[in-house]
Design a protein that fits this description.
The protein is mostly helical. It contains 17 helices and no strands.
Length: about 325
């Protein structure tokens, strides 16, 4: 059964047995494994899954789902752990990103990403994508550094570079028939660099996949991050009907779920959309209400983050190129 599941995952990613074979798992061994003619060790399975960008957790979930094992509705823990080099490096990249956003020391952020790129060998597709992400963020840091120095920047030229760099990621997402955790993570963290029309086209696939694999904890958490992240992109590029659609879907998904954190974020994003749409007073009131809830819940990090976002929204609402706010 494990071999059958692996074969389907491999084919979903349009990879041949030859594409995933190496010194650890030969083509002959993979063929036997997929056809149920050979058992596989933990080390070999972990290595084989990494070759197709599927984590052990996701694989085990799909195996359980195949056996009609139900998911657990009342257990939840955060933060989460997930195997694989990709998630390890991705976490490190966004650790640096959070530090840069707080310190606004963009030169240091570029240095950190350059050092991290040296550590990432780039031998696999996922590692190549991580290197691209480092480049994308470095370009963004450079633009923000120039803006802080009062240097006039060409935002259109920046996004043209970002879209060129991220093209291999876009091609991968369109080529995979059945997205897994890897593809959802790619969409979540690269979408700021995609053409906005591409983000709109791929969002349905991303959200639907999080619902199909709802038993994988990361997918549950990603669902609302995807929605809020793409909403920010749509507002930045003034695709307000698309932003409104996303918020309406988010509201529907949150209805009677007892998810106070994401419901509060929704209130803020609804206010942001109202501000950009011209209802400044009402929109500001919604944003301030959300910030007050974070304060009451004693969530100072979220309170400060959304206070800064509101300040930037009010400052930059008149000019699209004065500052993009991604989340």
């Amino acid at each position: 059964m494990e071999g059958e599941i692996f074969r389907q995952l491999r084919k979903d990613r349009r990879m041949s047995m030859g594409d995933v074979s190496d010194e650890v798992n030969s083509l002959s061994f993979i063929s036997k494994f997929e056809n149920g003619l050979s058992n596989i060790s933990f080390h070999r399975l972990e290595h084989l899954l990494e070759r197709i960008n599927v984590t052990l957790e996701e694989f085990l979930y799909l195996r359980a789902k195949n056996d009609n094992v139900g998911i657990y509705d009342y257990l939840s823990d955060r933060p989460f752990f997930m195997t694989g080099k990709f998630t390890f490096y991705l976490n490190q990249i966004f650790k640096y990103n959070d530090e840069v956003n707080q310190s606004r020391n963009f030169a240091e952020g570029i240095n950190q990403l350059n050092e991290l790129k040296k550590m990432i060998q780039g031998e696999t597709q996922s590692e190549e994508f991580l290197k691209i992400l480092c480049q994308l963020l470095s370009l963004s840091y450079q633009l923000n550094d120039e803006r802080d120095q009062g240097i006039e920047v060409n935002v259109d030229a920046l996004f043209a570079k970002l879209q060129t760099l991220s093209a291999p990621v876009v091609n991968h997402l369109y080529s995979v028939d059945n997205w897994g955790v890897f593809e959802v993570l790619l969409f979540r963290f690269f979408q700021f660099s995609f053409p906005v029309s591409t983000v709109h086209q791929l969002l349905r696939t991303a959200v639907s996949r999080t619902q199909k694999e709802a038993g994988v904890q990361l997918m549950q958490r990603m669902k609302f991050e995807l929605l809020f992240g793409t909403c920010a992109t749509f507002i930045n590029f003034r695709k307000l009907p698309w932003a409104r659609e996303v918020l309406e879907e988010t509201e529907s998904l949150l209805h009677d779920q007892g998810d106070l954190l994401n419901s509060t974020k929704l209130l803020f994003y609804q206010g942001w959309l109202r501000i950009v749409s011209g209802s400044i007073t009402a929109g500001k009131r919604s944003c301030e209400q959300a910030i007050s809830i974070f304060r009451i819940l004693k969530q100072p990090a979220l309170q400060i983050m959304y206070e800064n976002m509101l300040q930037a929204i009010l400052t930059n609402r008149e000019n699209l190129n004065d500052g993009f706010i991604f989340s």
